[in-house]
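Consider the tokenized backbone below.
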């Protein structure tokens, strides 16, 4: 569970992805639209069942990185698109 920030550039990129309780996801777009539905993970693949059709992710990963000055972040990579969240510091 958690909230990951994206850059929101282009119509297909989300400004934020939230993984919610009970296996649900909320995908926030730069036009203010929020699409919600169940998320399923199997190995390195993920399927987000959101309105408008499922979003298939063929490869995903989470990698922590040190931002310096006591800040630690995690990078969520979905088919090459990066989303970031702060996990400590500040």
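A designed sequence for it:
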């Amino acid at each position: 569970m958690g909230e990951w920030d994206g850059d929101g550039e282009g119509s297909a990129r989300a400004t934020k992805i939230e993984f919610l309780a009970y296996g649900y996801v909320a995908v926030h777009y730069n036009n203010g639209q929020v699409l919600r539905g169940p998320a399923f993970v199997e190995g390195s693949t993920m399927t987000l069942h959101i309105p408008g059709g499922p979003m298939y992710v063929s490869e995903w990963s989470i990698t922590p990185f040190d931002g310096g000055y006591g800040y630690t972040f995690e990078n969520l990579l979905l088919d090459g698109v990066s989303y970031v969240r702060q996990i400590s510091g500040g």
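The chain has a mean pLDDT of 91.
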